[in-house]
Amino acid sequence: MAQNGQGGETIYLTRERVVELEHELRDLKTNGRKIVAQKIADARGYGDLSENAEYDAAKEEQQHLELKISKLEHTLSRAKIIDARDLPNDKIYILSKVKLKDLKTNREFEYLLVSPEESNFDEQKISVTSPIGKALLGKHSGDSVEIKVPAGLLHYKILDVTR
């Protein structure tokens, strides 16, 4: 990944994911901070802060919230929006939808190759940096691939590549 001059590598995200992160950040800064501030205020009302478990818990929650806000801001500052329409269609790249056939079980399935920050196996979104993602990059429809994963070797045939 490329350096962007802002203290880290560029993070490639879809426009939809950037919008999701911006909404989450806005919600944490407004509603999240308001809720935590109220919890701290309520806990202060319980008296002596040196032995006030509710106050300690609320302050710890505030630290976690601020850390999450900071991480989101850092991610968004490094984000570069990618659009599948800007990528070539001749082989598998990030944002390719790949239909595969497991040559051992004959099962077929589809994955969308995404950045590590967007991967979500439950949604069939796999990272281009995962063993499967790395093995598929640059391949074409019709190719067979052997992929070494922690559980052993996978043998797939690439049935289709779309955007």
Radius of gyration: 22 Å
Order of helices and strands: EHHEEEEHEE
**What is the mean predicted local confidence, pLDDT?**
87
Main sheet: strand order: 5-4-3-7-6
Characterization of the model:
The protein has 163 residues and is of the alpha/beta class. The chain has two domains: 11-82, Transcription elongation factor, GreA/GreB, N-terminal domain (Helix Hairpins); 87-162, Chitinase A, domain 3 (Roll). The protein has helices at 15-44, 53-78, 131-136; strands spanning 11-14, 79-82, 97-102, 108-114, 125-127, 144-149, 152-162. The protein has a five-stranded mixed beta sheet with strand order 5-4-3-7-6. β6 and β7 form a beta hairpin. α1 runs antiparallel to α2 (53-78). The protein is elongated. It starts with 10 loop residues before the first strand and ends with a strand. The model is unreliable at 1-6 (pLDDT under 50).
